[in-house]
Amino acid sequence: MLADGGHYERAPAYHCQVLADLDDVVRLLAASGAAVPDDLPAAIARMRDWLRTVLGPDGEVPLLNDGYPVPADAVDHLLPGDREPVSGRLVSTGTTSARTTSAGTTGVGTGSRLLADSGLAVLRAGGFHLVADVGPACPDTLPAHAHADTLAFLLWYDGVPLIVDTATSTYDPGAVRDHERSSAAHASLVVDGTDSTEVWGAFRAGRRARAAITRMALDGDTAVLTASHDGYRRLPGRPSHERTFTVRPERVTLTDRVTRTAPATEREAGQRGHRVEILFPLTHTATATVDGLDTVRISGSGSGSGEIVLRVRNDPAAAVTGRWELRPTHRALGWQDTVPALTAAYVVDHELPVEIHTDIEIGRPADARPQPPARPTAADQPDAPNQPGISGQPDVSGRSGAPNRSEAPGRPEAAGRPEAAGRPEAAGRPEAAGRPEAAGRPEAPGQAGAKRVERT
């Protein structure tokens, strides 16, 4: 366990499984009359506090890195007494979770928190709730469940998801597994079509993004977080990516800066331009249209939520222009269960440095409130990847029905998802031969001196 209470694999679904296992151990010891070590209840309390912090305002466990949808009744078991039904939904009532007003929105400026050891930050203002992944992709010796998602984020408004993660539908090696772990499957920034962390095979990772948290602060009703990573250092000019999240009651603003950190070599002299793509995976119910050069309009994310606007603002003096694209892809709803969806991508072809500002705003009738879709229960989840009747997995290369292999056998867990039993090389695994910097990278440091921010 990390110092902030998170499980060291940094995958919230696995955190839930380990928390359930520890809870079972304590109950078994107590039932048998054996002594319960003092550090076990203390560890459980810290893990529960961590889960309260990262839980989405819709009651969902964020599907960051590998994971499986955790049913509502499993979360209720892990957080006893913390949640109450609201309009058919479950919301957290813990002190570190979203505080719900009579209008159902997150209290202005409340609950923003940095989990520096896990590399997760929660930013809240008005109806916006943002979870940012600003830490290491994985432990140095255990890359099995890593995704190339450094500086990616999830976003809700009034409890309804707007920007999501593609999530995980399979552990089978192949095109689907590769895509779901890639930077392109997350709300991240991609340089020259490469991944910020080199994920390969079903459970491997080579050179990894090294993240640094620069600043997190609250200023009135505004929450600001800045972090960076060097995952593209293998490209010409060793590009570095810095992202600032600014969350206000009226909008969320992303400021992305991609800069060179080394001069071009003689071999790279003719390759000074780079392609920069900023990606926004939308919910599977959303539809979108491109409106001019700088705007995408999105509808259908939640009944009554109206229109979501993505708008780019570039500095005219920098002469950086780009274009919006709407890319068909998929979202994973569960194991071997995917649906078609769109990803909005803003694409810039330019020499570095590049700086891009993107606003995310809500336009909806004042009397209309979004209604989140129904959450799955344990009965809705397959007990095993091989359960009959689960539809075939769409292959992003155009092949459907990817074969279901045995890396994730079907022991149902308290968290309601298959565990990857027998995961290869769970400790001390060899990294990719010939890939430098595959191990020994530093953890993301916390920001010293941040103003008025809870830090665990």
Question: What does this entry look like structurally?
Answer:
The chain has helices at 12-32, 39-54, 72-78, 175-181, and strands at 83-86, 89-92, 113-115, 120-125, 128-133, 153-157, 160-163, 189-191, 199-200, 204-205, 211-219, 222-229, 240-247, 251-259, 273-281, 287-291, 295-299, 307-313, 322-334, 337-351, 354-363, 454-455. The protein has one domain (12-455): Beta-galactosidase, Chain A, domain 5 (Distorted Sandwich), CATH 2.70.98.70. The relative contact order is 0.16. The strands form five sheets. Strands 11-12-13-14-21-18-17-16 form an eight-stranded antiparallel β-sheet, with no helix packed on it. The chain is mainly beta. The chain is globular and about 70 Å long. Helix 1 (12-32) packs antiparallel against helix 2. The chain is built from four helices and 22 strands. Residues 84-109, 365-370 and 375-456 have low confidence and may be disordered.
Name given to the CATH architecture: Distorted Sandwich
- Poorly predicted runs are 84-109, 365-370, 375-456
Q: In order across it, which strands form the biggest sheet?
A: 11-12-13-14-21-18-17-16
The portion of residues forming beta strands comes to 25-35%
Shape: globular
Q: Which structural class best describes the helix and strand composition?
A: mainly beta
Mean pLDDT: 76
Assign a percent range to the helix content: 10-25%
Rg calc: 21 Å
Q: How many H/I helical runs?
A: 4
How many independent structural domains?
1
Q: What is the CATH C-level name?
A: Mainly Beta
CATH topology term: Beta-galactosidase, Chain A, domain 5
Please report the total strand number as a whole number.
Answer: 22
Straight-line N-to-C gap: 13 Å
Provide the succession of SSEs: HHHEEEEEEEHEEEEEEEEEEEEEEE
